[in-house]
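Support reply, case 0932

Customer input (verbatim):
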Amino acid sequence: MKKIILIAGGCSLIGLILMGIAFIGIRGNIAELSTRNVESERKEYTCSSDIQNIEADITSDNIEVRTGDVDHVTLTYYNRPDYSEYEITESGDTLRIKYKDLNGPIHFVVNIGYVPDEPVTIIVPESFAGKLDLESTSGRILTESMSVSSLDLSNTSGGISVQDTASDGKINLTTTSGSIHVENTESTGITASNTSGGISIDDTKVRGDITLNCNSGSVNLGTVTAEGDIKVTTTSGTRTLTDVVADNITTNATSGSLKAVRVSANDSISSSATSGTTRLEELYAGRSITINANSGSVSGSIIGSEEDFAIIANTTSGSCNLNSTKDGEKNLEISTTSGTVNISFTE
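Our regenerated output:
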């Protein structure tokens, strides 16, 4: 009983201290505290010069960038009435947006829940074809309907979405906790990585390589063409590739299944996993196919005839319908420790 009383007393003391800090922060004006919790101001900033590079470092707000009917880059955001949370500067053709907390932890306590859940919105003119370098600690980042020279997006906690975007350079996407989605996009290359959260790429063409790293979460590619190589690495999560074309395709996973449907490589396809099933439908490779599944079955169809391949097929525990042979211009190697192998050919 005494322990409960002590805990309650301690909590009450902490509450009083926090109230005192808030009281000092508003200089004794209780009405101001109430106002700050319910009011906000919508701000708009229009650049005075032709901006071709945008750099943003924002702590907790969402960021959205898109093309609109404007002559110069326009920024819309929300502020507390008494000070600006953002430092906005122009230097040559570069716009920089940086979050700043002018009042430290006092305003964090006083103003919690104050600013509405509205994004920092950047509208660029149709003539914009510059560089985007955006960073948010905890907030979603979205770019859509625009052309850029390069794209670098990163955050700690929050999703990243790139839609209807064309880039003359590479697209780099990084998040610690949050999903990454790319759709209807063209670029010279895509690199995407996250710790927890999936990665999906749809209706996208790349004039170079695609490299995806996902620690915990699924990876999905649908209607994706790369003139270079595609490499997918996951720790735990499924890998699904549908209507995917590249020079070389490599997928590696510690645990998680693979489903490859109408996947085509001009040179080679390779896949490895410690645990998880592998399902292949109309798989094609110009030179070689290598599937290693430690624990899990391998099944499906490969385009061509069995005579096209020099086959190495091994399974420790489980049945295998393939016969090893040294004939054939292409190489097919499938190995499992525990799991069946059941492969058919389209010809």
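We compared this against your earlier run and they match. Two observations from our side: Residues 21-38, 103-115 have pLDDT under 50 and may be disordered. The longest strand covers residues 258-275. Please reopen the case if you see a mismatch on your end.
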